[in-house]
Fold:
Amino acid sequence: MIKLFDQMLRAARFDSHLYEEVEADSTALVPAMTVVVISSIAAGIGTITERGPSGIVIGTFTALASWFIWSLLTYFIGTKLLPEPQTRADPGQLLRTIGFSSSPGVIRILGVIPALGIVAFAVSAVWSLIAMVVAVRQALDYTSTVRAVMVCILGWIFQIIALALLYIVFP
Structure:
């Protein structure tokens, strides 16, 4: 568990070497999923006064679905639509790196403090997005950070559309 928390700290510090390590480590899928779950539980606790305990369960499942969808979309966009010549990746590499990029989401637990809730969630969102750009740049072997930003933004837009469709189909 200490190794996982160390990796989460490194991910939150935008450590590109950490993202290279988890990209190459096919056994890091479960730890990446664990990071997503920890982050989503922190968010659920942060909103418990507004949503109650069910927010933790719903938030965890939503976060896992979002992580999976966004990772696959990012894989497709990054390898098929916007690859660089050296881009070589598989979906697992994106699942692992993007999973770890959700590490900053742990600060959403501060949402239990009414005055900090909105700030914690906003800071977490920006911090996680920056970490995701680093994760995507490393996983897709990009030399351009701008390209990684474009892939993340496009993935986010498509993810929102996909989740909206899921909510329509499964209200």
Summary: The mean pLDDT is 91.
